[in-house]
Amino acid sequence: MSRWRGRARFAFAAAYAALALAGSLAFWVYFVIFIGNLPRLSSPWVAPSVDVGHAYGTVAAFAINAALIALFGLQHSLMAREGVKNRISRFVGHGLDRATYVHAANAAAWAIVLFWQPIPQVIWSVSGPLAWCLWALFGLGWFILLTGAMSFGLLELHGIPQALAHARGKKYKGPQFKARGWYARIRHPMYVGLVLGIWATPHMTAGHLLLAAGLSVYLLIGMHYEERDLALRFEGYPRR
Q: Tens of pLDDT along 23-40?
């Protein structure tokens, strides 16, 4: 019976963390299409996209979108605090706290793209060589984000090894920080990649601007706390 329970515990932990990773990867693929209006502005693959779709008037759209961005920011900020993380750990187990955070982050992120209200007033729209330069920066941003996450530790970010260690009854010690890949060149490569991805567009609308500005404000706030957390977590992380 104890062996069966051990296997069931391992299977649950592995599936729980794997679902968090799958939900996150699926979101980022969807988000790139969503914010880029891909494959083209007149006919994006997803609806609504950041610029295309039915909206319930400018004021209502602004209020709904601002609430979605605020929900995203509050979830990321509050659940990253030590007191909240300790409560989550006591409830789900220390090894499943990161995957739980990812599940909640996925829910908040998916809410943005599924319930977004486009505000189509054009802020700028360019074509020709300048548009292609902006598309190149757009692609570069998502490339930096992905490879930065891989350099940092994609599995650790989504709680996979933490959950497996928990299932085996062991404590996950975590990796040592190493300045490799983009981290050897840029202090916050994932943030830099995201900023490029959300701002570099040849067609900027009021709705897109609201999303880009809202996420940028969150990133500036989150950067402060991430600096502190990384310095506490990783030996060798450069302190300011």
A: 999 999 999 999 999 999
Beta-carbon neighbour count of residue 20 at 10 Å?
25
- What DSSP character marks residue 43? S
Both tokens assigned to 76: 């990321």
Give every CB contact of residue 88 below 8 A, 6+ residues apart in sequence.
79, 97, 100, 101
**Does the pTM of the predicted model rise above 0.90?**
no
For 36, 111, 121, 228, the CA distances from 181, given in Å and listed in that order, are 26, 32, 39, 21
* Residues 134, 36, 219: CA angle, nearest 5 degrees: 80
Where do the domains of the chain lie?
Answer: 2-233
Is-contact 35 29, C-beta < 8 A? no
Identity of residue 182: W
Residues 94-111 pLDDT 10s:
788 889 999 999 999 999
Scored b (16 or more CB within 10 A) or e, 200-227 reads bbbbbbbbbbbbbebbeebbeebeeebb
Residue 132 CA to residue 196 CA, distance in Å, equals 14
If DSSP codes are grouped into helix, strand and coil, which group holds residue 57?
Answer: coil
